[in-house]
Amino acid sequence: MLKELRDLAKSKSKLLKDELLHEALLAADDYTDPVFKEIIEKVPFRIFWKDVHSRYLGCNTQFAWDAGLKHPHQIVGKTDHELAWSNEAEQYIGDDLAVMQSATPKLNYEETQTTPDGRRLWLRTSKMPFRDANDVVVGILGIYEDITEQRGMQLQLEAERRRYTTVIQASAEGFWLTDSRGVIQEVNPAYEHLSGYTREELIGLHVTDLEAKESTEEVLSHISRIIENGGDCFETLHRRKDGSLWDAEVSVSFIENGGYFIAFFRDITQRKLLEKAHREQEARLGALLNTTAIGIVVISDRGEIEEFNSVCADMFGYTREELLGKNVNVLMPEPDSRNHDRYIREYMGGGPGRIIGKGREVVARKKNGAAFPMELLVGDVDLAGRRAFIGFVKDVSERKKTEQELLIAATAFETLEGTMITDVDSCIVRVNQAFTKITGYSAEEVIGKRPNILKSGRHDNAFYQQMYLDLKARGQWQGEIYDRHKDGHIYPKWLTITSVKDIDGRVTHYVANFFDISERKAAEERIRNLAFYDTLTALPNRRLFLEKLEHATATTRRNALHGALLYLDLDNFKIVNDSQGHQAGDELLREVAHRLKGCVRQIDTVARLGGDEFVVLLEELDTFEDQAAKQAMRIAEKIADELSAPYTLNNVLFQSSSSIGIVLFSEGAVNIDTLLIQADTAMYEAKKSGKNTYRFFNPEMQRTLEKRIEIERELRLAIAHGQLRLIYQPQVDNEGRLIGAEALVRWQHPRLGTVLPGHFIPLAEETGLILDIGKWVLEEACRQLDTWKDDPRFSKLTLAVNVSAKQFYQPSFVDEVVAVLEKYRLPPAMLKLEFTESMVLEDTYEAIGKMLALKEVGVGLSMDDFGTGYSSLSYLTRLPFDQLKIDRSFIQDMRESSDSALIVHTVIALGSRLGMNVIAEGVERDDQYALLKSFGCHNYQGYLFSAPIDIRQFETLLT
């Protein structure tokens, strides 16, 4: 992993801005080194690593917090599907697979991540293959940083850019963008119109190709001054495509960071003519002002109104006497009116000849105070040597209103909903694009025709008559309807029809809005299937089955017929999963479901409760119990025969069978929960009878069941009433010195006395009580260690605690162990946890992850009953155990069986080779002890040294 981190550090040098961190990552010798661990914890990025199955093997604290975890070890063994970002899991795992398959890093790409509180983050991620010592890819190493804020800024900047681009494209002013040499890179439509050239013709031309006033040398000199000063405003002449000239007012800026110019152009030919006319015929100004349909106002350099035409007077509602000599700010709303004099002063500080308004839209104020939209162009002019302003104004209220109404109407019509408008005779007059998309018909194909072109044939005349009556009575109809697409398929849609009436209340048109609800109805069906059907076999699930069973029991009470419940469990199903894989197991379950449905009648129900458990509900059996039992028995025999027939799984012939429990019910039957328990009890009796058979529930089973229920109830009270206790069986070394003990739980029953684990632990496993018992044992063992930790006589001892499979595979198991160690402030090495081989092989990847997390804490790990499994040696090198416990069955048989002796000798040698401590349990005789010592065994447990004893007796061994 170190190499991969180094490579990431090199490839992300821009990302890792902290140079000290960069150097530290490159210099680290071992990822287990504390300094290196501190580095990855302090790096401002998230780091993680996974195995070839995309299961997390580790991460830094920053990553764990992103995942909503308190500590990095909690990530071990998890996949992205189990974390807050499960929606992105498939994308993440796909990236992992691509990196591992190609053995090539994927660097600096962007992706999203969902946080535990539902927020969506943007990440910049890099992943690279993680190799073992043989250069084989065994996983991936990843690092990412949160770029959500940067992404937001980028999106904001992009939105601003698009907004400015839109403004420029819509502007009435011409626009250029050129490079630093003056070559045109972009223009807007306004400049195309001004110049007579197309955009394609303009791009690539040099400024000098269009400039008609300055020479080439003057243009190049002017460009240099603009670069130096950052911008300029000036007037010049440009040449159109047809050779004619036009006066241009230019405002140009040099963008130093980008190395380009942006320039805005306004055709001031008309203004120049007006200025010339004013200079030549100032006396004719009044007549000229009143001959145009545009309002014109002349303003002095002090902001006072000197002249205006009648259009302007009518527009603002003032008489000539009321406006002449007044400050122009009386025509402006706040805050422009207050700031206008300052604007004038600032503008007067610049040179003459600039256009202020540039034909923009502004808000103006009438005499009565009403505000209205106005199009404004203000020019800076010379009136007989005196500087002044002339404003051209136009009231655009009606135009704006019309534009807004048209925009609203167009937007409302072109929605995602299909829209069809018909006249009063139901002839189609208009449809929108969504109509075409939903129905498949174009506007040309339906205009002039009637809506019945869409009829599916699923609704009768009564349906349409009621629709017409509702429409006539209320002016609207709304509901679900099926129509036929142009290609012939029928689809559901939600339709709303509304009458359109004129001012006299007469219907003139009908407007129909609709949308396709096929996906919604399909989703509803999928949700129903997920809620009521098993996804693997498509059989009813437990929820739907219980509803059917409840209905069946109610029916038997009404019709006096019997019913029967058959509870099935496949025999040896685990062997299929273990030997052929889960895919073969799933294939077997699907085939069993298929065969079961072929064994029953149409009125009966077959359901899957989970795993390899199925139930069959038989209804409407005979009124007489013995005849109903015979009917149920025949069906059970048929099922047993069908399910015992050979299966072909992965092209391998496989034999299976089933155990079936049967319970009859009638009008006096018990409730459904009791029926299920009775059927389950009968099924277990069938299993105990040799499997591949069936058993009816009977009174003796009921008594056994009641006894079991009583024991379960009492066991639930055992912890609360302090009836559980620990006893301790010593563990010794070769010299007989005490090295620790195994803590064993006993139930001190007030009536039955001491109950051994074999009589209550299986029941606890089955009912889930083992979780509470396991927590109690762990807590009690650590409480005892707390009394030993500061006593030199006991501080070197270890205490072994057995862990159940259900307890181990709880998501919080590692956290619970850490919490109880911290509670008593124990040295973790004093605690040793014992796991059976079959338990850790249930889910090897999750088991390894949790065991590595426990080893990191410092807890000892021991494999109990080693050698009784079927794949011990193949997994032993992968499981991070500290100790192997040889099962007592091998110890007992060593003298009588050479095979057992060879196995024990091999295990001891193998443990020594792998650096594991080996302990033999069940040592009861001196000859066993001597033989084990000759094999090289160093640690022992058994009755030869001591039986399990209470804590007082145990502590006297060291006093």
UniProtKB/TrEMBL annotation:
NCBIfam families in alphabetical order? GGDEF, sensory_box
Which InterPro entries does this chain map to? Biofilm_reg_signaling (IPR052155), Diguanyl_cyclase/Pdiesterase (IPR012226), EAL_dom (IPR001633), EAL_sf (IPR035919), GGDEF_dom (IPR000160), Nucleotide_cyclase (IPR029787), PAC (IPR001610), PAS (IPR000014)
- CDD domains referenced in this protein's UniProt entry, alphabetically: EAL, GGDEF, PAS
- What role does it play? Putative oxygen sensor; modulates the activity of FixJ, a transcriptional activator of nitrogen fixation fixK gene. FixL probably acts as a kinase that phosphorylates FixJ.
* PAC domain boundaries: 107-159, 358-408, 475-529
| Record's catalysed reaction(s) | 3',3'-c-di-GMP + H2O = 5'-phosphoguanylyl(3'->5')guanosine + H(+)
A Gene Ontology molecular function term for this protein is: ATP binding
Q: Provide one Gene Ontology biological process annotation.
A: cellular response to nitric oxide
Q: Where is the GGDEF domain?
A: 561-699
- Chain ranges of the EAL domain: 708-959
User: Under what name is this protein listed?
Assistant: Sensor protein FixL
**Entry-linked SUPFAM superfamilies:** EAL domain-like, Nucleotide cyclase, PYP-like sensor domain (PAS domain)
Q: Which UniProt keywords apply?
A: ATP-binding, Kinase, Nucleotide-binding, Transferase
Q: Which residues form the PAS domain?
A: 160-230, 281-351, 420-449
